[in-house]
Specification:
mainly beta, five-stranded antiparallel β-sheet, globular, single chain, 4% helix
Length: 469
């Protein structure tokens, strides 16, 4: 496939994933940042039994259609050319290392801390299981890596009960805290799991009813891992304190008009949180006051996944289902104003589902803030702490009037917006002072290339692409 350019994005490589692709995740562990996992979901074709008894009852139930999946593991060449999708030998940048058949994959996340001295990938599947995989070098003379199953855990009480594990998140993205996982499922429940570091056994700590319909998404507050956020098809965005039995949420927001399907805490900028919904809007929140969002940005498609930039948190990556992939500038956040869209990637031909930033050293670049921590890198947190907070208002509400499909809610009060509150960006003096720590002038935002991976559903495709800024 030829490389196409849309604005300041350019396709580098296309991969046919055979099954419908819905999840991509780059490994965050040093030494393994060139590793990419891609998950797929495929509904099995209806069974055609030519030997079926012609005298069988017409009321006989139809055969169960299995949800099939494949987990692909790729490695990325570190010396990828910015002008070509292959190197001098004709090898593609992304090289497939492994493809594992398994139940359909709904979500997956790499643990941000090594487990048993190896990167660990958690996979949520259509049979209500969470499966942990370790990443090992390939045997013999083969280059690349392979996945090896460590353990599995079912969130379903009975094997006969159909329940999909829809999303998961690790608690230790920011702090070296206990390895816990939160899982949302198709019954509207949330599940808190513990992963022991020595035996890598997975045990259930807590399960509770969170939403009236599917709980599409669950995510930790990375700065306060005892806080969990969830979104469901009941149009509710909720917070939970897992130090309690979770009989009652800490807040309930009705700010989204349709099902809430994406949430991510900003690991680099305290108090910042992003949510996305089928209502095609991205909301950015100050977690110190959850009565209303800081900003609202229409994106033109249901927001299935959101990913803050892993090194500085000033860019927000969105998978917008029917409207491709977009990158928002969240350097400065001002109420009543949308976030600028600085790049769009529109080369997929189907539903945009999975997307992630490549973290490989030497390929991705810092955007204003160095990866090594200095006193100046705390300015964003200091600036956030200066925001005023309006304590008026109430977000606890009645049940959503929308149907489980894509109908908008009716009769709700409009969102009340308090006076403008701005989250400042890092000033020029900080950019100059950090130059010595960065070896390059980070105030110059030209000729920087970020590499990303994305996938789409019905055209079963994985793309490697770059964003120039």
């Amino acid at each position: 496939m030829e490389c196409n350019t849309t604005n300041n994005t350019e396709q580098v490589q296309y991969v046919d994933t055979e099954y419908s692709a819905d999840s991509v995740e780059w490994c965050p562990i040093d030494g393994f940042k060139d590793v990419l996992a891609c998950g797929t979901y495929q509904l099995e074709d209806a069974a055609q039994d030519s030997n079926q008894d012609e005298n069988s009852s017409s009321s006989q139930s139809q055969p169960h259609r299995r949800r099939l999946g494949k987990l692909f593991l790729f490695t990325l060449h570190a010396d990828i050319s910015s002008e070509s999708a292959s190197d001098a030998t004709g090898n593609k940048p992304l090289q497939e290392n492994q493809a594992l058949e398994m139940p359909a994959i709904l979500d997956m996340k790499w643990c941000c801390q090594s487990i048993s001295d190896r990167p660990c990938l958690a996979v949520a599947n259509a049979e209500g299981q969470v499966i942990l995989y370790s990443t090992l070098p390939n045997d013999g003379n083969r280059e690349g890596y392979r996945l090896e199953q460590l353990s599995s855990h079912s969130i379903v009480p009975s094997p006969d009960e159909q329940c999909l594990a829809l999303s998961l998140d690790w608690a230790n993205a920011k702090w070296n805290s206990p390895s816990q996982i939160v899982v949302s499922d198709s019954k509207g429940k949330l599940n808190l799991l513990d992963v022991t570091s020595d035996t890598v056994a997975v045990t259930s700590l807590l399960q509770w009813d969170a939403h009236g319909f599917e709980a599409w998404i669950a995510a930790f507050d990375y700065w306060q891992p005892s806080i969990v956020y969830s979104g469901g098809d009941d149009c509710r965005f909720k917070g939970w304190d897992v130090r309690t039995p979770c009989y009652k949420p800490t807040f309930v927001s009705k700010s989204h008009q349709m099902g809430v399907c994406s949430i991510q805490s900003n690991v680099n900028r305290e108090h910042l949180l992003a949510t996305g919904s089928y209502d095609e809007n991205i909301l950015v929140w100050d977690t110190r006051q959850m009565r209303q969002p800081l900003s609202e940005t229409p994106i033109g498609g249901g927001v299935w996944r959101l990913k803050w930039h892993p090194k500085h948190g000033r860019l927000l990556l969105a998978a917008a289902m029917h409207n491709g992939f977009h990158i928002l500038d969240c350097d400065t956040i001002t109420e009543n104003e949308s976030q600028p869209i600085v790049a769009s990637y529109m080369e997929h031909k189907s539903l945009a589902y999975g997307v992630d930033w490549c973290r490989q050293d030497g390929i991705t670049s810092n955007y204003g803030i160095p990866s090594n921590k200095t006193d100046d890198t705390d300015q964003l947190q200091d600036a956030l702490s200066q925001c005023s907070v309006d304590d008026s208002g109430d977000t606890s509400g009645a049940a959503c009037n929308a149907s489980k499909t894509t109908q908008r809610r009716t009769g709700d009060e409009p969102i009340q917006v308090s006076p403008k509150r701005t989250v400042p960006s890092v000033d020029a003096s900080v950019l100059q002072r950090t130059k010595a720590n960065n070896e390059t002038d980070i105030s110059a935002k030209t000729d920087i290339e970020e590499f990303l991976a994305s996938c789409s559903f019905y055209d079963h495709s994985l793309h490697l692409w770059k964003f120039k800024h």
